[in-house]
Amino acid sequence: MLSRLLFRSVTLLAIGGGLAVAHSLIPPKVPIILGDPKAPVRPANPGSGSTPAVPDASNGAAASGTLPATDAGPGLNVSIAESVALFEKGAPFVDARYLAEYEAGHVLNAFHLTVDQLIAGKGLGVLGMMDPAAPVVVYCGGGMCDASKNLVNYLQAAGFAQCHIMNDGYPAWVAAGQPTATGAPEIGE
Amino acid sequence: MSTASKPPAALGGLVLVLRLVLGGLFIFAAVMKLSSPAAFAMAIAAFKVIPAHADHLTKLSAYAVPWIELVCGLCLLAGAWTRAAALVISTLLVAFIAMILSTMIREMDVTCSCFGKFEIPCEGPVGWCHVVRNAVLLAISVFVLWKGPGSLALDRESTR
Lengths: 189, 160
Prior knowledge:
The complex is a heterodimer of chains A (about 190) and B (about 160).
Chain A: H1 2-24, E1 77-78, H2 80-89, E2 93-95, H3 99-104, E3 106-107, E4 111-112, H4 115-119, H5 124-128, E5 136-139, H6 147-157, E6 163-166, H7 169-175, E7 180-181
Parallel strand pairs in A: 1-6, 2-4, 2-5, 5-6
Antiparallel strand pairs in A: 3-7
Chain B: H1 9-34, H2 37-47, H3 55-78, H4 82-105, H5 128-147
């Protein structure tokens, strides 16, 4: 009785596992990207970047102004001070937290974009507002939050070469007294 | 003269309802996960129970878990190999509960992705709601494992 139960259970696991292996051989529509993001890839020629497409304030985007195609300063993970410098240069900020958290408070003019949106084929409006060759700052809740890191993986796969992660997250931005806003994102899904 | 008595019809009906509910729920969960393996793989990775250098295991799990759920869910619906399917699902639920408790102890902010983009009935990061929900499902699964297939099953073994 028990041996038959175990045999059948193992058989069910084997059937499920076999189907899983067969399924995994089919290339997924959305690539599975895991692990730590690699360092941003900078253009070889700093002067050859495309025209920055910094979104205007009427769309709830980052402050207007032109950005260089490259930024020799900060690395992948940036401090609050470095984030402020990028903010003042007009770099777009992307909030990778839950929508409710964004609505409760976010970096002034930040976009809202999550990996879930990208996987669902949404968020293209936000991507279209940002220049892949210019710096982009992504943040979430700081600490153990992985949302920004996961989003950067996707942004880099989508060609955004200068992604930065504001490591300490939104709470540290607020604590530093930097400008914030509340409410729903103006750029929809 | 046999002393064995037939199980009451009410018990057979109860087990039937429970395995239909459990099977249906796991089929739904499997289909939602299989609709986006990338999302489920990232959800698994967020739990940080598989080492970062073993991404291949995370990817394999993203396919294996929903397919096993689907196979076992279909078995429960049909009443075929019911106890074996209930045993596998019980084992999965124990693992899920352990993973959720692990993230709670580590104070991690992760989403369940148990039903893909749907959260039934718990919303937001994993917490006690998810533990209780899975514990209820585990109790149902163990009950089916104990009592057998119930009414309208392909299995020939009887409910006891």
